[in-house]
Design brief:
Layout: H1 2-12, H2 21-33, E1 39-40, E2 48-49, E3 56-61, H3 62-68, H4 74-80, E4 84-86, E5 104-106, E6 109-110, E7 117-120, E8 123-124, E9 143-150, H5 154-157, E10 164-170, E11 177-187, E12 191-202, E13 205-216, E14 225-237, E15 242-256, E16 266-284, E17 288-307, E18 318-335, E19 341-360, E20 369-390, E21 394-405, E22 409-422, E23 426-437, H6 441-445, E24 457-470, E25 475-494, E26 501-521, E27 526-537, E28 547-557, E29 560-576, E30 579-594, E31 599-606, E32 614-616, E33 619-620, E34 625-637
Parallel strand pairs: 7-10
Antiparallel strand pairs: 1-2, 3-9, 4-5, 5-6, 7-8, 9-10, 11-12, 11-34, 12-13, 13-14, 14-15, 15-16, 16-17, 17-18, 18-19, 19-20, 20-21, 21-22, 22-23, 23-24, 24-25, 25-26, 26-27, 27-28, 28-29, 29-30, 30-31, 31-34, 32-33
Helix pairs in contact: 1-3
């Protein structure tokens, strides 16, 4: 399926600010004559041709991210990745706590339940207490590309990678020079988005510095959102074989959530700060490569759950506060012992947790606090990943992880697969892989129905994938079939030993599905692309649509570039008790005009059919919205 992503990326290059039309024509002419194989890092730690992986890794490149004209990475992933869906409730901002959006699901497994992992450069990103990703932390200025492994990735990444991973590969400068870019736009509901990035490369030194400010009034009362973001990365190539790099990323947002329309909420306010930093030493030789990395993630949460005056409620006496963190060390080395062979040995250590409490600001307990949890736990693991090529037509992949949790015990995680490289540029892949996750601190220690005796969840994913390139790479298509069988899922059920409810390992999951993706580059000016996913769930879950279809057209000629797409969602459960589903069609349009070599004028429209729909029950989405702005790109190469 790699040709699909190349075709999409080439078309999106037309919308890159500062890119001359001659450069674009030269690129398209070059790509017409031969096929470049995609190289990924997510499925094997080290750089690997996707043809040799038995699991499916989808790629969204920088050009596609820029062409989306979005401050968040998640909307473009929802469009381009079959089987992946992200919930939302407004024009901008996802928020946390009650009524929050930003749940990322893949094949019916959700990050909000810690069954899908988001990473930055291979480092896990989730709240140490709650175990789930924070959607507002994943901004577009971070990413050079995003790699999505569809299926369990627990052998390489451990717990929380049960259903797959979304790996954000951060930006860097490829050639010696200075590049400064500015993106800004304004539109519906007093919405403003800005991003400024500077990248430098000089000899062995490289740097990236980005900042952003985004805000909106929202399409409902008390739905404002304001976000500040910053990212800095420094790198130094010690010599041709060793590289050192470090980075830091901080996002702060203030959000208000208005509650469901049937029970409007007052003072539902949040102040959230999320940050991460990492340091990595990498080596690359002809027959071996690897890295040692240390990372630290943290978050501070201040939440007022608000109140509903129409229900006779009064302002909350308390505020929820928490500080969580995660520290990790990752070490791996991949070695080629003989022709066609690659063995990767790795070691991971994670320590995660935090402190959460209620602070009383009014009422009889004013000035006091009540503890909720103050705890950390550890995860220690070793793994081996084996790959062997047989002639030019077959690759065998196998892996095993031994993962030990400080409280729960040891988990063994195997996977295996075959990749057949057939004639006529066809690929056939078959895999079986286990995924698992440890219970998170919230499930074990916070709020009734907590249960400290919970055990790990686990599942098996069986997958068959076929892809082919035709017409010298201009036409590409692929199809995946999968079956998921899971057990010991954590559910909240009546307590068998007393009154009330209790978290218990009583759930099962049985999901089957099909994913299709295709792209056709008609000529230098026109291309079409699309993807479709069907998901059948024995036990339906919220935020996992049964049908998801996207079809898009891209056009570029002279200084003009245009892309438009239709997305159809059907069988989307917004709640399961009572059962409520949504079906809707969204039409989006993006257009840009290259005023000069360094200045683009752009506009985007979303939900142009003005559909009435909900993704979160009780939170109607905005009708048609419009954004417009400018993008500047100033580039200077060093001689």
């Amino acid at each position: 399926m790699k040709g699909i992503y190349i075709s999409l990326a080439l078309i999106a290059l037309a919308c890159q600010p500062g890119r001359s039309q001659k450069q674009l024509r030269d690129t398209l002419s070059a790509e017409t004559s031969y096929q470049i194989d995609e190289v990924v890092v997510t499925g094997a730690r080290q750089k690997t041709d996707v043809r040799h992986l038995s699991q499916t890794v989808s790629i969204v490149g920088r050009a596609q991210i820029e062409n989306s004209r979005q401050s968040s990475l998640l909307p473009v992933l929802t469009e381009q990745i079959p089987g992946l869906f992200v919930t939302s409730r407004g024009i901008m901002g996802y928020g946390v706590s009650n009524g929050a959006a930003g749940s990322i699901s893949l094949r019916g497994l959700s990050g909000s339940s810690a069954r899908l992992m988001v990473m930055i450069d291979g480092h896990p990103q989730y709240a140490g207490i709650f175990g789930h990703p924070i959607a507002d932390a994943y901004q577009s200025f971070l990413a050079e590309r995003v790699e999505v492994l569809r299926g369990p990735a627990s052998v390489l990444y451990g717990s929380n990678a049960m259903g797959g991973v979304v790996n954000i590969v951060t930006r860097k400068m490829q050639e010696d020079g200075i590049n400064t870019s500015l993106h800004t736009g304004y539109g519906s509901y007093n919405t403003l988005e800005t991003e400024l990035t500077n990248r430098i490369r000089k000899g062995g030194f490289s740097s990236v510095l980005s900042g952003s400010y985004n805000r909106t009034d929202g399409h409902r009362t008390d739905m404002g959102f304001e976000q500040y973001g910053g990212y800095a990365k420094l790198g130094y190539e010690i010599n041709g074989n060793w590289n050192l790099q470090g980075d830091v990323n901080v996002t702060h947002f203030n959000a208000s959530y208005p509650g469901p329309v049937s029970a409007p909420l007052t003072d539902g306010d949040q102040r959230i700060t999320r940050g991460m930093t990492s340091l990595a030493l990498e080596n690359r030789y002809e027959k071996t490569s690897g890295a040692l990395s240390i990372f630290y993630n943290w978050g501070n949460h201040w939440i007022n759950d608000g109140y509903t005056p129409s229900a006779g409620e009064s302002p909350q006496d308390s505020r929820f506060l928490s500080h969580d963190n995660m520290t990790g060390i990752s070490l791996y080395q991949s070695t080629r012992f003989f022709q066609g062979n690659r063995i990767t040995l790795g070691f991971d250590w994670f320590r995660y947790g935090g402190h959460a409490w209620n602070e009383y600001v009014s009422g009889s307990q004013a000035g006091t606090t009540s503890e909720l949890v103050d705890k950390h736990e550890d995860e220690l693991a070793g793994y081996i990943d084996f790959r062997q090529d047989f002639n030019t037509w077959l690759t065998l992949n196998a892996g095993l992880r031994v993962d030990h949790h400080s409280r729960i015990g040891t988990e063994w995680v195997p996977q295996a697969g075959l990749a057949f490289h057939l004639s006529h540029t066809m690929e056939l892949k078959a895999s079986a892989s286990k995924g698992f996750r440890y219970p998170i601190l919230r499930e074990m220690y916070m709020f009734p129905p907590q249960n400290p005796d919970l055990q790990p969840e686990s599942m098996w994913n069986y997958e068959l994938a076929f892809s082919q390139r035709l017409l010298n790479g201009r036409l590409n298509y692929g199809i995946n079939l999968f079956y998921i069988d899971g057990k010991n899922l954590i559910l909240t059920l009546p307590n068998p030993n007393g009154s009330g409810m209790l978290n218990q390992n009583s759930g099962e999951i049985e999901n089957t599905g099909i994913e299709v993706q295709a792209a056709f580059r008609i000529n230098r000016h026109w291309s079409v692309d699309g993807n479709y996913s069907y998901l059948h769930m024995k036990d339906p879950v919220v935020a996992a649509p049964g049908h998801k279809l996207y079809a898009g057209t891209n056009f570029s000629h002279g200084r003009w570039s245009l892309s438009t797409g239709m997305q159809y969602i059907a069988g989307l459960y917004t709640q399961t008790d009572p059962v409520t589903t949504e079906n809707f069609v969204l039409w989006n349009l993006r257009v840009s005009f290259q005023a000069t070599r360094w200045l683009d004028l752009w506009a985007r429209g979303e939900n142009l059919l003005a559909q009435r729909y909900e993704i979160n029950a009780g939170y109607p989405m905005p009708r048609a919205t419009i954004m417009a702005g400018i993008s500047l790109n100033l580039l200077r190469y060093f001689r």
